[in-house]
Write a structure and sequence with these properties.
Blueprint: H1 15-30, E1 37-38, E2 47-48, E3 59-67, H2 71-78, H3 84-96, E4 102-112, H4 117-134, E5 137-145, E6 155-166, E7 181-186, H5 195-205, E8 212-213, E9 218-219, H6 220-224, H7 232-239, E10 246-251, H8 256-262, E11 269-274, H9 282-291, H10 295-299, E12 306-312, H11 317-327, E13 331-339, E14 349-351, E15 360-364
Helix pairs in contact: 1-4, 3-4
Amino acid sequence: MTSEGLTYAAAGVDTEAGDKAVELMKDAVRRTHGPAVLGGVGGFAGLYDLSAFASYRAPLLATSTDGVGTKVAIAQALDIHHTIGFDLVGMVVDDIVVVGAKPLFMTDYIATGRVVPERIADIVRGIAQACEVAGTALVGGETAEHPGLLAPDEYDVAGAATGIVEADAVLGPDRVRDGDVLVAMASSGLHSNGYSLVRAVVKHAGWDLSRHVDEFGRTLGEELLEPTRVYASDVLALAADDAAQVHAFTHVTGGGLAANLARVLPAGLVATVDRSTWDVPPVFRIVRELGGVPRRDLENTLNLGVGMVAVVGSDGADAALARLAALGVPAWVLGTVGVLDAGTAGDDLVAGTKGVSGGAVRLVGDYRG
């Protein structure tokens, strides 16, 4: 030990690198700020002016938090970090819009073994760009250097967001009725769930991330790093269209389509999903074939091409499809909602997921692709 003793930098924490990262990212963060954001970048807390919502009769705050999961391992392996921000924002704000709430602001948290300013800035720029797409302000965040806990080039990301909705405009199971129609919105790919399975399959097959896959038209790594589609603005626009008669949304994340759809159905109703209504994107077929993954396990883990579902009134499907087409969101009728009775009970029903005691979902038919 030198006579000068140990420093924070010698212990593995470089505060100057953290300051440089902030300088590199702050312009991207500022672009998400409207007049409601006070104080700019760098404060101890983000401030958001709610005066514009003073006319709300009974405002409710909605909040959500999430991360990206082991998809970060793909980003780290490829040394590509700007797309992870879309995954993070999509996982968080698209849970909020499910109840009809407008996401107002978001904060992020990055833990890393070593702050590389350019890498941290890439991550945050991606988060900020996705917040712009979602119409959400990025009002603050934290980058924590954890030497000895994480390897120098390892990191993890998480985020939280807050939204607002009128109490009498909350969407969900209370609005869903017998005869409602399910309108699916296409995913952009794997999104940010099930990567522990996907990575295990890739390892089992001995495929390298640089391998070109004809079905993808690009490398395996590029396909696996495809950013999550951020639905927030489009979903809110659809909910505001009275002709679409939106009763509920479900965000298809961990647990797959059936498990998440069951969460927004009331007890006594069953959603019948027709597998033959869409072509499953090639990435899901490749995962199935490479790993010999059973269909039930795929359905309980991956989105299989459906990232969001709107439950609309029996006369609202055409208007919903027209609105989504105008917004550039690929969509189709996925199935219908009916009464659950003895004739629809059986082993193929999915119910009681995520701790929610509500309706049920049954998948029928076979996939086209």
